[in-house]
Structure formats: structure tokens, C-alpha cells
Amino acid sequence: DSPWFSRRKGILSIDDVPLDRIAAAVGTPFYAYSVTALRHHYRALTEAVAPHRVEVCFAVKANSNINVLAEFAALGAGMDIVSGGEMARALAAGTPAGRIIFSGVGKSDAEIRSALRAGLGQINVESPAELDAVAAAARALGLRAPVALRVNPDVDALTHAKITTARKDSKFGIAINEIPALYAAAAARPELHVVGLAVHIGSQILDLTPFRLAWSAMAALIRDLRAAGQQVDRLDLGGGLGIAGAGGPGPDLADYARIIGQTVGDMGLALTIEPGRWLCAQAGVLVAGVHYLKRGDGADFAILDAAMNDLMRPALYDAHHPVTTVHEPRPAPAMPLVRLVGPVCESSDDFGTYPDLGALRAGDLLAFRDAGAYGAAMSSTYNSRDLIPEVLVEGDRFRVIRRRVQIRTALRLETPGAWQVTGAV
Ligand code: LLP
């Protein structure tokens, strides 16, 4: 049904590799990503926004495997990072430091210093206190810090409450009415090079109207700043472009690009976007095995070997990932309702109810689609489970890009250190 996921001789395949072959090699559950799909998405988005000279910085948090990052870096992507760990990954993947943007509300002193030493292209500052911290670090290092102020434009992204970031009660960004005074104060500090502004309103955005509202507000703000004599060279438009799903079709790239052009296109700004999900979600699947079938009330349970620790999104945001059987669906007398659940001891370890999987049997393989973003990156070892393997596929070849992290590795970190005696208090 797409160039990278299709049935070949009845078996769901990623590029030209049947998923049951990967399962036999690495065991289930596992994540698999199509290089073809990653490249296709990167090229489609960069081409759509090219008329407005927009730089694309991949949001590393969506999929932080350095082999995935290296694919994007090789295509010319910059990176949007939110921690020292993500900086290490982006650099290890070969991203030039000058093409890395450091976002996030809570950068530590150590992170700010290492960002400045590495020569990152831009630090997006989210509060006056953080601006002071960046200035102090730059002064101590004898460097000039390239900063942008992240604006909270008070716009509702019309997405899930847990992934909206720009309403005025949000922890993100600086209230738009505080920007003019802070911008002028920052521009006057010799240890800062204030390059412009940033905004990011939320994630999985399907209705593009909030982008138009937010970016129009940014355009007005920039006109005011310029009228007051400030220099504003760059505008970072954030990420958030959603993908098709249960909520309907995905947004149209041409519309997205047109809104960029209409709102901020003709202002002589160096523009950046920070897409995460759009670039990698549809390139990935989580493949799980069916452990047991169990009669339930209303729907029968299929108990899988994958759980909420492997794919958090259903438990955390009620996200519904389309599921396809790796084999041809078997005809069933009446289409049974199946509730897909994992082995973790939590009621929220529930991927939802699926009407169209046919008759399932123990040992079947199921593919959760759209799992290339915020899947492996958000996984944990809760219930002392493994971190599962990640596999990259290109044409008829595949390779493991993260090995399974097993309990024996975790246990090595839990050997107790020496007692540190504080004396009785
Ligand atoms: N830029 C900034 C500053 C961000 O905070 C984010 C995402 C992005 C870019 C990329 O957004 P995207 O294009 O991927 O929507 N874990 C949630 C999504 C959280 C997104 C957090 N910030 C999920 O699984 O849906």
C-alpha cells in the first residue's frame, strides 16, 4: 500500500524485506525503519518548502538512533535538539555544529557550556532566567552566544492536550508581550548575538489554521521589533506537522508551504522548520508477536509480546496506531473485535481495539504502523523488560542499528557503591 510497506507473496514487507525474515533474525518485538521512506519524506518536505528558502532541522527527539540521524544528516538536514544527550547524537551522526538548534525549557549550565564550546548554530531561550544563564556561560567562555527567543504566541494547536505547547498557560516560551523589552535588553548584551525568534505550537497538528495564526503573530511581532530598531534575521517556525491517521487525512504539504510563504515569506528572514514526526513516523513499524488469545467481555484479548514500555503513545495519549497482520488476514466467521494488550502489569498497557485483523492465532506477527516517531525514542525498561532492537532496511537488505538491551546489562549498573557516611543527624 506504499512503496515501503506492501504485501509480497502474502507477507507484509518493508522495502523488499519480508517482516517475518527480520523477526526470525532478531526476535520480536522489534522496530524496523525503511531508509527509502525516510529519504522520500525528507525530499518531499524540503522540496515543498524550497521556494521559501526554509532550512529543515530534524527534531532528534522523534527518533534519536544515530543511524537514522546519519541518514538525515547525509541528506543535508540540520538538527533540533533538547539535551546534551541529543547534541552528542546529532554530532556523532555527522551534523555540522552550526546546523544544530538547541531547544527546550530547562537547559543545564553544563549543557549550555558544551553547546557553546561545540559552536551550535542557535540556542532557543525560553525564559529571562535562561537568557541570564546563557549570557553568563558565554561570558565565562569568552564567546558570543547565538540566541533566539522562543515566543509563546497564545495559540491553541487543536491537538491532544498533552502535546500542545503554545497556550498562555503552557510552560513553553516567553509571553509575546514580554518579547520587545527582553529582545532589546538581550541585543544590548555584548556576550549575546540575538539572531531572531522561535515558535513551536505543538505536535500532530492536522488543521493548519493554528500555524497561520501563530506565524502571523510572529510576523507582526517582527515588524514591531524592526520598527523599534531591532535586527531580526532568523525565524524558527518549529515542528508539529501531523500525519494522516484515525483523525483523517494528513495535511497537504503545499498548503503548509503556502502558509509559510503568506505569513512570513517575504520578510527577508532565514527560516527554519523543526519537523520530527512527519519525517519518520510513517517510515517505521513496531512488529510484535501474539503470545496468547484470551476470551474477554465484548472483545477478545490478544496478549502480545510488545507492551506500553515499547510503544508508550497509546497509554500516554490514547494514540491509535493502525495494525496490520504480517500474514494475510485469515477469514473469520464474524469479524471479531480484538483488543491488543501487552504483558505489563498496568491496565493502560492496552493498544486499543481492532475490528479487522481476522482470526488470530498464537505466534502470529502484527505490525503497528506509524511507529517510526516517538516509538523507540520513548521506550523504557518498565517491568524490567528489554529495550528492543531497531532495524534499518534498505531495498532487500536489513541491519540491526540498536541491539537488544537486556537485563544483564541493566543489572551491571545496580551493583551497590560504597556507603557514603554522613554521620547521624
Ligand atoms: N520542535 C520543538 C521545540 C518540539 O518541542 C518538538 C516536539 C518538535 C520540534 C517536533 O515536533 P513534531 O514535528 O514531531 O510534531 N511524544 C509526543 C510528541 C511530543 C512532541 C514534543 N515536541 C507523541 O508521541 O505524539
From TrEMBL:
The modification N6-(pyridoxal phosphate)lysine is found at K61. The active site is at C345. Keywords: Amino-acid biosynthesis, Decarboxylase, Lyase, Lysine biosynthesis, Pyridoxal phosphate. One of its GO terms (biological process) is lysine biosynthetic process via diaminopimelate. HAMAP family: LysA (MF_02120). The lineage of its organism: Bacteria, Pseudomonadati, Pseudomonadota, Alphaproteobacteria, Rhodobacterales. Residues 38-281 form the Orn/DAP/Arg decarboxylase 2 N-terminal domain. InterPro entries: Ala_racemase/Decarboxylase_C, DAP_deCOOHase_LysA, De-COase2_CS, De-COase2_N, Orn/DAP/Arg_de-COase, PLP-binding_barrel. It holds the Pfam family Orn_Arg_deC_N. The keyword Amino-acid biosynthesis applies. Specifically catalyzes the decarboxylation of meso-diaminopimelate (meso-DAP) to L-lysine. This is Diaminopimelate decarboxylase. GO terms for molecular function: diaminopimelate decarboxylase activity; pyridoxal phosphate binding. PANTHER family: DIAMINOPIMELATE DECARBOXYLASE, GROUP IV DECARBOXYLASE. Pathway: Amino-acid biosynthesis; L-lysine biosynthesis via DAP pathway; L-lysine from DL-2,6-diaminopimelate: step 1/1. Its EC number is 4.1.1.20. It catalyses: meso-2,6-diaminopimelate + H(+) = L-lysine + CO2.
